[in-house]
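Hey, resending since the last one bounced:
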Amino acid sequence: MNGKTFLLLLFIVLSAAPVCYSQTNVKNSAAQNVSSKASAQVKASPAYAEILLRRTERESELEQFLIDYTEEFPKVKEIRFEMDSIREEMDRILAVGAPEAGKLTLALGKLMVRKIEIQTDLWNLRQQYNNDHPEVKRARRKIEIFEKSIKEILQ
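The structure tokens again:
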């Protein structure tokens, strides 16, 4: 390959690069736009709103406790645990795609909030009892029942 041919090929490749790059950006931008619309649709769902309400209530309570108590206070630890469970359920809802956003009903949100409350109760029971205690077993079984219903709705 002589120098002129090489320069011509180099010029063609370099001049085509911005076009390819802009097409890729358009595709990426369109994908992000669809993703943000799906996310907005999910965030507008009754299930997300129900869990967001619970998170807001617990954050407010936590702020009140932190005025007078440290992070080691049992109620502060309990609320922190519950907030982690709330985040997990919110992430679970956000993972639902736009075509399935109709499944995110108020009933689902209430199921998830109730499951979180039972998980928190179980956490408290485990502070006092071992895993073989009847109360711990009952709480675990309740969580399994709620989780089964949640999965049934989300399938």
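The radius of gyration is 25 Å.

Sorry for the duplicate.
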